[in-house]
Amino acid sequence: MMVWSINLLVLAIGFLIVGMIKPRWILFWMDKPGRLPIIMLSTVLFMAAATMFGQANIEKHKELAKINEQPGQSKVNAVPTVAVKPVIETK
Q1: Main-chain dihedrals φ then ψ at residue 29, nearest 5 degrees
Q2: Are the C-beta atoms of 20 and 35 separated by less than 8 Å?
Q3: Is 43 or 30 the better-scoring residue by pLDDT?
Q4: Please, is 74 exposed, middle or buried when counting C-beta atoms within 10 Å of its C-beta (0-12, 13-18, 19+)?
Q5: CA-CA distance, 50 to 53, in Å (whole number)?
Q6: 46 pLDDT exceeds 60?
Q7: In 10 A of CB 91, how many CB atoms?
Q8: Residue 59: per-residue pLDDT
Q9: Mind spelling out the 3-state secondary structure of the chain?
Q10: pTM of the complete model
């Protein structure tokens, strides 16, 4: 999914550059295409690419954590505990 997000980002950049130079090439079905629809559509593509990249990065870190986890080590014992001395109050 990370590769797809990078491809979508490259597509959005190309779409934005070409659309700002010649909007008619991208919006060929319109009589008088403007630059605002190009900006809006490329913004949506940028957001989709960023979301996909973030999700792929989270999944990658989860897989690495699963691989690095020791087979005999439980998650409860993996957390270090701190011994606290009780405070004795005298009145």
Answers
A1: -85, -10
A2: yes
A3: 43
A4: exposed
A5: 5
A6: yes
A7: 2
A8: 86
A9: CHHHHHHHHHHHHHHHHHHHHCHHHHCCCCCCCCCHHHHHHHHHHHHHHHHHHHHHHHHHHHHHHHHHCCCCCCCCCCCCCCCCCCCCCCC
A10: 0.64
